[in-house]
UniProtKB/TrEMBL annotation:
Compositional bias annotation for Basic and acidic residues: 111-123
UniProt GO molecular function: actin binding; ATP binding; G protein-coupled glutamate receptor binding; metal ion binding; protein serine/threonine kinase activity; synaptic receptor adaptor activity
Pfam family, one: DMPK_coil
SMART domains given in the database record: WH1 (SM00461)
Gene field: HOMER2
UniProt biased composition (Polar residues): 124-147
Organism whose genome encodes this protein: Terrapene triunguis (Three-toed box turtle)
UniProt protein name: Homer protein homolog 2
Annotated stretches, region: Disordered: 111-162
Gene3D superfamilies: 1.20.5.1700, Pleckstrin-homology domain (PH domain)/Phosphotyrosine-binding domain (PTB) (2.30.29.30)
Coiled coil segments of this chain: 167-326
Principal location listed in the UniProt entry: membrane
Length: 355
């Protein structure tokens, strides 16, 4: 008994097309599940299998006619005509989708090679069966003729024994050949039925392909409409964001104005308080004005006195200068008198010495 050998494994969200609408996707798993490629050595085929708990949600045999289509950056799908459905896989990243698509192409090529080899084996076996069926009667006839010639030639007992042995061998070979012919005829009939089923499946697949092409075209148009709608929504979102920015600026400006208004109100309150003491200030101002006038009058009197004093000082300076001049003259005269007195003393001293 053959085994299923895992080739590639990944994780994705599994979807199936809605059989009633053939447009909407129906989730086949509540969360991301394991999706694997397997090689089935029993049937010499390749499969995509996914199990959610105890439930098999994907069991798709890959054929050379299948195509895996990327419909977005993280989503891909393929149609399975045997299961009469379309499977969709949603991946967590674009890299995982790309790897799955590349592996799908590799497995599809491997499935094509396996199919070609299987057909070659069937054709070879069929040709061998037909050749065996044609050669066996000829050999029997040839042996019979040879046996007749031997009988005519020898007419002995040893020849009869040899012919009997040969006839027994020919009967066994003929029985085996007949058995092989029936076996190959059964296999040929099985292959014809299989080919008929494959032809029917191929026709159904072709019809399904046309259907999916039409559906793909509709989905593409719907995607284009959705893209346009998304672009319009993005433009609206951009306008909304700009409006939000303007509102934020207005709110900030409003807060600034409110803060300025509060400051102005505080200033106004201060001015009001100051306005309450204005009469007292006016009284004080009048008192100060009177004092200022009195002070100005005193200042004028003082200035007059200062001018008078300055005149007196000037006159005093002039008198001092006159006195200084007279004193200088007096000192000069005094110096002359002192010199004369000195000379007189010297003259007296000389007279005393002479006496």
């Amino acid at each position: 008994m053959g085994t299923k050998i895992p080739i590639f494994t990944t994780r994705a969200h599994v979807f199936q097309i809605d059989p009633s609408t053939k447009k909407n996707w129906v989730p086949a798993s509540k969360q991301a599940v394991t999706v694997s490629y397997f090689y089935d050595s029993t049937r010499n085929s390749y499969r995509i299998i996914s199990v959610d708990g105890a439930k098999v949600i994907i069991n798709s045999t890959i054929t050379p006619n299948m195509t895996f289509t990327k419909t977005s950056q993280k989503f891909g799908q393929w149609a399975d005509s045997r299961a009469n459905t379309v499977f969709g896989l949603g991946f967590s990243s674009e890299q995982q989708l790309t790897k799955f698509a590349e592996k799908f192409q590799e497995v599809k090529e491997a499935a094509k090679l396996a199919r070609d080899r299987s057909q070659e084996k069937i054709e070879t076996s069929s040709n061998h069966s037909q050749e065996s069926g044609r050669e066996t009667p000829s050999s029997t006839r040839a042996s019979s003729i040879n046996g007749t010639d031997d009988e005519k030639a020898s007419h002995g007992g040893s020849a009869d024994a040899h012919l009997k042995s040969e006839n027994d061998k020919l009967k066994i070979a003929l029985a085996q050949s007949s058995s092989n012919v029936k076996k190959w005829e059964t296999e040929l009939q099985t292959l014809r039925e299989s080919n008929a089923r494959l032809t029917s499946a191929l026709q159904e697949s072709a019809a399904s392909v046309e259907h999916w092409k039409k559906q793909f075209s509709e989905c593409k148009e719907e995607n284009d409409q959705l893209r346009n709608k998304i672009e319009e929504l993005e433009e609206q979102c951009n306008e909304i964001n700009k409006e939000k920015e303007r509102n934020a600026q207005l709110n900030s400006r409003l807060q600034e104005l409110e803060s300025e208004l509060q400051d102005k109100e505080l200033e106004l309150e201060d001015l009001r308080k100051q306005g309450e003491i204005i009469p007292q200030l006016m009284t004080e101002c009048e008192s100060v004005s009177q004092k200022l006038q009195a002070a100005e009058k005193k200042n004028r009197d003082l200035e007059e006195k200062v001018r008078t004093l300055r005149t007196d000082v000037e006159e005093s300076k002039q008198r001092q200068n006159s006195l200084k001049t007279e004193l200088k003259n007096f000192l000069d005269v005094l110096d002359g008198k002192i010199d004369e007195l000195h000379d007189f003393r010297q003259g007296l001293s000389k007279l005393g010495v002479d006496n």
